Amino acid sequence: MMTLHRRVRRAALAAVLVCGMGVAGCQSGPGHTGADYDGAPIYLTQRPALTLNAASLEGASSDAAVLAARIYPGAMIAGPGGQMLPNTDLVGAERLPGEDTRIRYTLSEGATYSDGHPMSCDDYLLAATAAMMPEAFGSVVPVASHIAEIQCAPDGRTTEVSFEPSYGQRWQQLFGPGTVLPFHTIVARAGMDPAEAREALVDGDAERLAPLIDVWRHGFDPTRPDPELQVSSGPYRLAGVSAQGDLHLAVNEYYPGDRPHIPDVYLRPGRGDVASPNEATPVLADLVDKDPSAVSREDSAPPLRINQEVSERTDSLVLASAGVMEDQEARRALASCVDSAAVAKASSDVAGMTVPWVSTRVTAPSDPTYGRVGAQVDAEAQGHPEDTEALQGRTVRVAYLAPHTRYRAMVEEMARSCAAQGITIEDVSSTKTTMADLVGAHGGEEGFVDAYLLPVDGASSYDLEPVEPGHKSSVLRTEQELWRSIPTIPLAAEPRNIVADHRVGNVVVYTGPAGIGWNMDRWRSVDHS
User: DSSP readout, 440-490?
Assistant: First the structure.
């Protein structure tokens, strides 16, 4: 039995498509599928596909969980209404008796990767270690800072994770979609002996783990299919990339659960305004940057169902741990100069729907306690004119993963309100800018971004002692502590425009990290002829 003890506490959250925008450089061949989709649905998402690794800084910045939800499913599946559903097809999770929070994860008998290799606790040891060593791995899994110990027998089917005392239910956020990757292929690609890799993981030896870390972080770009490395544990596998730059998901024949109803799905990342290539192809979309009219369709195509939803996530600025944002006074100054109500209006105008400005971090606007808790922290969020003195005459560099019309408008609004206080906001975004570019993301002073704009999930993105759901006093204490430390600045609820073709059934709207693809394997083809 190998036992990993916690060594690292981390603070709160601190490539465009290869063929995506033009087809001239894309050819059918190994790793690529042809353009004939044979009626398979296309799922449009708006963020570029950088990686399937949702635990990495790049993955968290690009909503990798949307792509990876049914390729590398989590131990628990988050569904509508915030419910956490056990993924017993793959792994069972049970809380063991006792005062401490101790969870036993037991892999199902048939839990097997798409290359036929059985899953093991080594996969979970790697996932947990990567999460607990954020500077070495470039990871962002705040819940892991509360892990006290991991027990894993080499090639075993059971993993036990002990958390800090009285940790509550937040443990369900560990091992989420896109965070448990194949140990055996990563180790093989890194040229390491499995026993050596296990020992280095348990020891937390970043130097010995360097080859493994490189593969873990950079080997899961879905636009560069690597069938020997990117093997799947979910109901779908990455089968290739089409000539149009769409990611082709096909059935994983080794998955122990029910076979997907729709055998082929094409994901079109980073191009939410490009509809299906012909009227025979159903289209679905999860739009975070445009209003639903942006999805163009041929006049003869069947109508679309459109849901405009206020997301469970909050568009927020994640602040750098070093540089101009290192001091609490500077964080307070930035929070005070930003007019969140005006920023929310700018977001609403682009999205074609109204979203509220938000003053809380772990409490979403949909939460029953939001009104009462928000009213008590609104004054903290709005700040006072004198609070801006720490940043007057200075420049704050803000970034997001471009292109993003809505975020550009939000940053422009921030720049206007802060300029009136003598603070310059500079937009330094590009198509490759991620949270990895935050000053201090890897220790030291490297990096060129002071604040990164992205949607933040309050359930999993903070490492404070979790609140007890529905307990107003507990929720309020947590929110007040977060306004004292200011790891992020909440701005506005994220707008989501969900578009679904009538020819695809059982599409259940979910506005959390995995998006509407959370139950993709349960989608059904519907014949309206």
Answer: TTTSTT--SBSEEEEEE-TTTS--SPPPPTT-HHHHHHHHHHHHHH-SEEE
